[in-house]
Structure formats: structure tokens, C-alpha cells
């Protein structure tokens, strides 16, 4: 998910809504509303108190009636439902879809069993990250992929360019962009028990990273046991005409414990889980190795390469990267994106990419890039916030333990 400062933005809007007439706020923040795309749940969000903001070309809820702090904690204690329909899902099909995809991503796609998926990275010729993505092997001739909203245009243009060249050489691959579907993310400890009321499929046999096409609440859905919060949960691709009914059914079956939740809490949840935010923690000049995603490079891919930028990435694997993404806890005001990181002598060693106050841990947490050698857990640092240095220490990620549903 792309975009920075969502937590801060949500807090800013909350303060303004408390101080200013809502019509004035509407004119100020929603002046370009007509130009923004809307998901099929837009009216549902507004009816339920969603505070809508521009995000990656869409009008999306930053929060609802509860605070970002409250909704973050509720997700970890009970559950949340997020509208993530602004993200782009598409299918690659054809007998050559796997070798085609392996030219563009770092994952060992061929090794995935049907019905399983993984996080991966689309790379450029220099080894930089074009986008991070979850890819799923539906069958050997069908891959299902979800990319970030803010990267949709560049991702699709990149894939299409390489697809044309691949097909020109006789490769069998085609695609379909699922603009007819919406995407809901159901996250939190109650997600499985609530969703089980709406499907005959036994969800206890669906583990983290696994995928099914099944009936949920009377609609044929793509369901992946994954998410962006560190909690157990599901991403559900549902026909758009059934999306509102599905959201209502989930809320009803949870008896009010699962709440509609906006992008502000989604950002704080992913930061607590130590997950990268494209556009903040990953960019086109950052490699997967530098971003701490070496684990996502398949063993065979490390040996053979064959993806864009492989020469750069494999060299970093062998020699070590010059910079590394690490976690921090700190004193003082919460660090923000672009806050300078110094060593104890005051020498610049890096920059914060994401930071904020953790609603669940009740302390500052952040991620940022530092020079190799300054990346070890326990290393002390100074973090500059508004020109003043505060104590920080390199901290192991995730900050909040993950609760993914895996075989025992």
C-alpha cells in the first residue's frame, strides 16, 4: 500500500473536524472529490461516518467515528474490515505465465504449490523495487496478483511492455484486470470465526498464504489468508455488486466487535507489524536486499537469477548491501518520514522512512535506512525531530508479534 503519513493525516483531520464546521472542511479537503475515483462502498462508508480523503486517486476513508488509536487496538483485540478495492487485482493466464512472471519478480513462482502464494517484488533493471505484491498460483496456468493502488499505472505499463515482447517471441500468456471485483480485507482474531458463518468451506484448513475460490455470502469470491496488519485474516476479492452485502454481513455476524476501519489505522497496524509501505520504505532505487526482503528471493532464483536487476541483487546478497532497513524505538515526539538518523557522535547515518506512536505498545516506533554496520539490534542512535535530537535504539521487527494462522 502506497502513501505516507496516514496516521498523522487522520489525526489532523480529526482535530479539524472537532474545531471547524463540517461544510467548511468539506470544501477544503474534498474540493477535488469529483475527480477522484470511488469504490462501490463509497456511500456505505459515508453513511457509517467515514471521513473520506484523497488517496492514490481515490476517495477513501481515513477513519470512522472512533479514533485511529481505538480502531488500531480493536483490530488486534477483535477485528477490522477494510475496503481496499483501490488496489489492483489481475490474473495472468497461459501455459507460459510462470516463466513470464519469473522474468519480472524475485519469487520462485514455479515452486509454489497450486493454491498458495507469497509476497514478492517487481524489480527494474537496476534491481530497484517497482512495487511489492502478493502473488498466488491458482493453477500452473493461472496466477492471481494484487498490486498497490498508487503503483497501478506504472505496474501495468511495465508488465504490458514485457508481455508484448514475450508474446512476440511465441510465449503463451494473457491477462485480465479484475476491475469488475472489489477487495475487502478482514483482519483480527475474530476474522475466521465470523467469516465461517458466511461460507461452507472449512476455514480451519486454510492457512496463511493459501488461496481458494469459494462461495462467501452467496457470491463466488477469491479468498487469500493474508493481510497487512500482522494479524490473522483474509483478503476477499468479491464481485462488486456483492461487496456492500458482504461487508454488512461480516459486521452483523460479529455483533459489533469487528468494525469498519480506515487507512489511518491500517498504516499504524502495518508499522507495528514491521511491514514495508511502498513509497515510504521502498522505492525504485531501493533493492529487496536493502529493504530486508532477501527471504522473498527464492533459493533457485538466488542461484540462477533470470529476473530484472538480478546481477545487482545477487551481488548484494554475496557482499552485503551498503544500507539496510531497520526498526527503531525512540524517546520524544514520534519520528516521521525523512527524520535524520545520527550516530551518538552526531554523524548522519540514515533517514527514517515511516514512524509514529504505536497505539498498542504506547511508545514511538519507526523504520528507516542506516549504513551497514549501524544496523544491529541494540545500536544506539539519535533521531532528529524538528531540529532536536532524541534518543533512539535499533529494535527488532516486528514491533508487535505477528499472529498468522499456520499449521501447528
From TrEMBL:
<comment type="similarity">
    <text>Belongs to the GcvT family.</text>
</comment>
<dbReference type="InterPro" id="IPR028896">
    <property type="entry name" value="GcvT/YgfZ/DmdA"/>
</dbReference>
<dbReference type="InterPro" id="IPR006223">
    <property type="entry name" value="GcvT"/>
</dbReference>
<dbReference type="Pfam" id="PF08669">
    <property type="entry name" value="GCV_T_C"/>
</dbReference>
<keyword id="KW-0808">Transferase</keyword>
<dbReference type="InterPro" id="IPR013977">
    <property type="entry name" value="GcvT_C"/>
</dbReference>
<feature type="domain" description="Aminomethyltransferase C-terminal">
    <location>
        <begin position="324"/>
        <end position="400"/>
    </location>
</feature>
<keyword id="KW-0496">Mitochondrion</keyword>
<dbReference type="GO" id="GO:0004047">
    <property type="term" value="F:aminomethyltransferase activity"/>
</dbReference>
<feature type="domain" description="GCVT N-terminal">
    <location>
        <begin position="41"/>
        <end position="299"/>
    </location>
</feature>
<protein>
    <recommendedName>
        <fullName>Aminomethyltransferase</fullName>
        <ecNumber>2.1.2.10</ecNumber>
    </recommendedName>
</protein>
<dbReference type="GO" id="GO:0005960">
    <property type="term" value="C:glycine cleavage complex"/>
</dbReference>
<comment type="subunit">
    <text>The glycine cleavage system is composed of four proteins: P, T, L and H.</text>
</comment>
<comment type="function">
    <text>The glycine cleavage system catalyzes the degradation of glycine.</text>
</comment>
<dbReference type="GO" id="GO:0008483">
    <property type="term" value="F:transaminase activity"/>
</dbReference>
<keyword id="KW-0032">Aminotransferase</keyword>
<dbReference type="InterPro" id="IPR029043">
    <property type="entry name" value="GcvT/YgfZ_C"/>
</dbReference>
<dbReference type="InterPro" id="IPR027266">
    <property type="entry name" value="TrmE/GcvT-like"/>
</dbReference>
<feature type="binding site">
    <location>
        <position position="235"/>
    </location>
    <ligand>
        <name>substrate</name>
    </ligand>
</feature>
<dbReference type="Pfam" id="PF01571">
    <property type="entry name" value="GCV_T"/>
</dbReference>
<dbReference type="GO" id="GO:0006546">
    <property type="term" value="P:glycine catabolic process"/>
</dbReference>
<dbReference type="InterPro" id="IPR006222">
    <property type="entry name" value="GCVT_N"/>
</dbReference>
<keyword id="KW-0809">Transit peptide</keyword>
<dbReference type="GO" id="GO:0005739">
    <property type="term" value="C:mitochondrion"/>
</dbReference>
Amino acid at each position: 500500500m502506497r502513501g505516507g503519513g496516514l496516521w498523522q493525516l487522520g489525526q489532523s483531520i480529526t482535530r479539524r473536524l472537532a474545531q471547524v464546521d463540517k461544510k467548511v472542511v468539506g470544501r477544503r479537503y474534498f474540493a477535488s472529490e469529483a475527480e477522484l475515483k470511488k469504490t462501490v462502498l463509497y456511500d456505505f462508508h459515508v453513511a457509517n461516518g467515514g471521513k473520506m480523503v484523497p488517496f492514490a486517486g481515490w476517495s477513501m476513508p481515513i477513519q470512522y467515528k472512533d479514533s485511529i488509536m481505538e480502531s488500531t487496538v480493536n483490530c488486534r483485540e477483535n477485528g477490522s474490515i477494510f475496503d481496499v478495492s483501490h488496489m489492483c487485482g489481475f490474473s495472468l493466464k497461459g501455459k507460459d505465465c510462470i516463466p513470464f512472471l519469473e522474468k519480472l519478480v524475485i519469487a520462485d513462482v514455479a515452486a509454489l504449490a497450486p493454491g498458495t502464494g507469497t509476497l514478492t517484488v517487481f524489480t527494474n533493471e537496476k534491481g530497484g523495487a517497482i512495487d511489492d505484491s502478493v502473488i498466488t498460483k491458482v493453477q500452473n496456468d493461472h496466477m492471481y496478483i494484487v498490486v498497490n493502488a498508487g503503483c497501478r499505472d506504472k505496474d501495468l505499463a511495465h508488465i504490458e511492455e514485457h508481455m508484448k515482447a514475450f508474446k512476440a517471441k511465441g510465449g503463451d500468456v494473457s491477462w485480465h484486470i479484475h476491475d469488475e471485483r472489489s477487495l475487502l480485507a478482514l483482519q483480527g482474531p475474530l476474522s475466521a470465526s465470523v467469516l465461517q458463518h458466511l461460507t461452507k468451506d472449512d476455514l480451519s484448513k486454510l492457512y496463511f498464504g493459501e488461496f481458494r475460490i469459494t462461495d462467501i455470502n452467496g457470491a463466488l469470491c477469491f479468498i487469500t489468508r493474508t493481510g497487512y496488519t500482522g494479524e490473522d485474516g483474509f483478503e476477499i476479492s468479491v464481485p462488486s455488486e456483492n461487496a456492500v452485502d458482504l461487508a454488512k454481513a461480516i459486521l452483523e455476524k460479529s455483533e459489533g466487535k469487528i468494525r469498519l476501519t480506515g487507512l489511518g489505522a491500517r498504516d499504524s497496524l502495518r508499522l507495528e507489524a514491521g511491514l514495508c509501505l511502498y513509497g515510504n520504505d521502498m522505492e525504485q532505487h531501493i533493492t529487496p536486499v536493502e529493504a530486508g526482503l532477501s527471504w522473498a528471493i527464492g533459493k533457485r532464483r538466488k542461484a540462477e537469477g533470470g529476473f530484472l536487476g538480478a546481477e545487482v541483487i545477487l551481488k548484494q546478497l554475496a557482499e552485503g548491501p551498503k544500507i539496510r532497513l531497520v526498526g527503531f524505538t525512540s524517546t520524544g515526539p514520534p519520528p516521521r518520514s525523512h527524520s535524520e538518523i545520527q550516530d551518538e557522535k552526531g554523524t548522519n547515518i540514515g533517514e527514517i522512512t515511516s514512524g509514529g506512536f504505536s497505539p498498542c505498545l504506547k511508545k514511538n516506533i519507526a523504520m528507516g535506512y542506516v549504513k551497514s554496520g549501524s544496523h544491529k539490534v541494540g545500536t544506539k542512535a539519535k533521531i532528529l525531530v524538528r531540529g532536536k535530537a532524541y534518543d533512539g535504539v535499533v529494535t527488532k521487527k516486528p514491533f508487535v508479534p505477528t499472529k498468522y494462522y499456520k499449521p501447528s
